[in-house]
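Thread: "does anyone have the structure for this chain?"

Original post by V.I.:
We have the sequence but no experimental structure in hand. Need at least a predicted one for the grant figures.
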Amino acid sequence: MSAAVECAHLSVGYGQHAVVEGIDVVLEPGQALALVGTNGSGKSTLLKTIMGLIDPIAGTCRVLGGQPGTQHARVAYLGQAHPSRSVLPLQALDVVKMGRYASLGLFGRAGTRDRALVRDALEQMGIGHLAAAPLRSLSGGQQQRVFLAQVAAREGDILVLDEPTAGLDLSGAAAYRDLVSKALARGASVVTATHDIADAQTCDQVVLLAGRIVAQGTPQQVLTADHLLDAFGIVLQSVEHQSHQDLIITELPHAHDHGHGHEHDHGHRHD
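Reply from O.Q.:
Generated one for you, tokens below.
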């Protein structure tokens, strides 16, 4: 069985301008990979390369054993700028149904299983009651749930997600985590670009980016106070528990005001 994603000596960027160089990643089926970094760090650029939306500058990238962008029916993608936002008029149900189009083909008709997947995806994301609502009438968080339901309905072998928890409240984030867990349980792989350290801690692999690879490996190897200070410029305190560790952002370096540090919550950093 081919690796879900395999990058070797990969450089990604635009034109001849490399944003990140020397990427070596092997993601197996059933594994989750988090790309962590700030805005401009290169994580979205790497996602677009995996999707075949931009070409590698150097090196190779293989997705499900083939060239990126050639396995549409097997890859579910959620970008930061979703095309459905500007297509009117669309109901939430219409957007989720789009998740089945790649499997049906241009003139294929949705069958019983397709309809069940769409219905289940809406319920999984807690928006079954919003199926008939116009997309443009929904809040940003509700729209994000709709787009995640589309991802779930697709049943892709790889989920490629750019800031999937953006705008979600606590229940929406919990529904998203359940979506990912179910995808991994059926053998799918998940690649997510995020600045949410808590989400990254649940993944099998983490690549920490800052226009370069700061660190790569397991969450325990990568998400250390020193590495995160290097990538984000933030100071963290590690709180050890029996089964895990919590990384708490305490203050920004050099951000003292009359001797007092400023509190920052990592959930409010925007990428």
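V.I.: this helps a lot. The CA atoms of residues 137 and 152 lie 22 Å apart.
O.Q.: and The chain has a mean pLDDT of 86.
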